[in-house]
Amino acid sequence: MRIMVPLVAVLLGACASVANLKDFRASSADIDFDDVSARKNSIDDASNNNESSADYLTVVESESTEQLIALIAEALQGSGYTPVKTDRSNGVVFAERGLRANEYGSVAGVYLEAASGAFTVYARVDTTQGVTGGWKENRAKHILDRLCVLAPCKPHATG
Fold first, then answer.
1. Helices 65-78 and 139-150 sit at what angle, rounded to 10 degrees?
2. Given pLDDT bands bounded at 50, 70 and 90, which one contains residue 48?
3. What contacts 29, CB < 8 A, 6 or more positions away?
4. Of 29, 32, 64, 121, which has the highest C-beta tally within 10 A?
């Protein structure tokens, strides 16, 4: 048992960032969708990524909030995440996933806002990874790309 505490401390110390759902906004009302929409996606060609957060935004056609939330949960599961909290009244779905080759774990928040006959959907993913980083990958875009297989979308990239 004495060796476990230092071992855990060393392993956690090797993490450049630790992803936590507590760092996410609690409601889609707390997201400035106009500001997010104005940003551009800027992933360069480098093969290594020390960024621990990624986001993406798209416009999704859906018949109802309930249907869209079910599709978001399906897209998250298809990307290896487990939905841990769905808050329909605040328009958000939170999820997490464990160890992968490129990360120690990650958490995701997917937010939605009604927008003239459709929904604006914003995803943010924070990862826990080591100081060496990992390969370039927008995990939030990956989730919304899966969503767009399930429902018609009009993508709009963000940084």
1. 120
2. very low
3. 90, 91
4. 121
| Nearest to 44, CA basis, from 146, 135, 110, 144 | 135
Q: pLDDT at position 47, please?
A: 37
85 vs 117 pLDDT, higher one:
85
Q: How confident is the model over 102-106, as a mean pLDDT?
A: 81
- 64, 131 contact by CB (below 8 A): no
Structure tokens at 158: 């963000």
Q: pLDDT confidence of 44, banded at 50, 70, 90?
A: very low
Residue type, 59: V
What gap in Å lies between CA 56 and CA 53, rounded to an integer? 11
Are 143 and 58 in contact by the 8 Å Cβ rule? The answer is no
- Alpha-helical (H) ranges within the chain are 4-13, 33-38, 65-78, 139-150
Q: Which two structure tokens, joined as six digits, stand for 5?
A: 């505490």
The answer to whether 131 touches 112, Cβ cutoff 8 Å, is no
